[in-house]
Amino acid sequence: MANTVTLLCCVVLAAVVAYAQRRNQTGASIQYERMGGDVTMQCGSLDSDASVTWKVNGTDVKARHREEGSRLILMEVDLSNNGLYSCFQNPNGERRDQINLRIGTSPREPTVTCRSNTYPKGFYCSWHLQHPTSIPTDFDVTVLHNQESLEVTRDVVHKNRCHVQFPEVFSSYPYRVNVTAVNALGKASTAITFEEFNIVKPDPPERVVATPIPSNVRRLEVTWNSPSTWPDVEIFPLKYFLRYRPLIRDQWQHVELSDSTAHTITDAYAGKEYIIQVATKDMEIGTWSDWSVAVHATPWMEEPKQIPSTTEQELLLETTPSPAPPSAEPHRAGVPVGRASSSLHLLSPLLWSSCLLQGALTLALM
């Protein structure tokens, strides 16, 4: 009964608003007409056989029409017929009336969805028309729970959204939401029924960060925050669903986590950029949130070693002192034979001749 009374009040209010809008600031009345039909406009209170001239937006009427005394009849109107129509009484051309013509359609059943992202505080419902009406359309919303009407608060930012507080938690009674679209040409309603646990859906996790781990070429440390709109994570804990993949592949890898806001990826491809997202849901009821904003990260990569250039190598060779030649001193005790032999090979031919002559004289004296 309360629902019926509320609906009747809405219809009356819509009629009052429509009547109040019949004239705009210029003094013109507003006339709403259905698209595709014929439209008749009457020039004020003039007699039906009065002679008048019609203008639209200050120019002659070029659309398909006919004039019958003080009336202007437009045929098969569409949005191009919108405009400010003025009528002037002949022969002195006095303006007698102005009509602001608006062409549109009556609303069809709106699409309605409800969701609780602040469980257990409350839920919100949103609605929209799949087919625009082209004329102002208002919406009336009623919510029933256990045969009682709940208070509905319209959103101050989203015009097609309202908020409702849960009257109790873990209720076994279903909720019924009815949204009625109303305009000057008609009305249409949509009603949905749901149970509390079916509409619980948190917002996505926030501040997702992926950080490379030093000296680990296959690991990424991922952290995130619970959605700030979720009232109490301690009493109503959340679980999380992490997905990640390298940009070079289309297949996601998934990890489900219970009551944790961090995870270390250990199987990343070294040097490959990754895309990472996180979703969440209540531990017991509801559905998964949408995915968080995607973040990109690349595992830690070892810095390449510096290799001297050709010019640097040449400079190094030029500035390094050359090794000293083997000593030409006579063989001393303690010096390896090999070294002495090598030194003898380096003696000049003249020195060899002197040595041989000295040896021959020594033998002769003996």
TrEMBL record:
Q: Which PROSITE patterns match?
A: FN3 (PS50853), HEMATOPO_REC_L_F3 (PS01354), IG_LIKE (PS50835)
State the residue spans of region: Disordered. Answer: 303-335
A GO cellular-component term linked to this record: membrane
| All residue ranges annotated as the Ig-like domain in the record | 36-87
Q: Where is the Fibronectin type-III domain?
A: 106-203, 204-304
List, as start-end ranges, the regions of compositional bias called Low complexity. Answer: 310-321
Instruction: State if Repeat is listed as a keyword.
Output: yes
Provide the leader sequence positions. Answer: 1-20
CDD domains in alphabetical order: FN3 (cd00063)
List keywords of the entry alphabetically: Glycoprotein, Immunoglobulin domain, Repeat, Signal
Pfam families per UniProt = FN3_IL27B_N
Read off the SUPFAM superfamilies from this record.
Fibronectin type III, Immunoglobulin
Tell me, what is one Gene Ontology molecular-function annotation carried by this entry?
cytokine receptor activity
The record's similarity note reads: Belongs to the type I cytokine receptor family. Type 3 subfamily.
The name under which this protein is listed is Ciliary neurotrophic factor receptor
Task: Supply the source organism for this entry.
Answer: Salmo trutta
Origin organism lineage: Eukaryota, Metazoa, Chordata, Craniata, Vertebrata
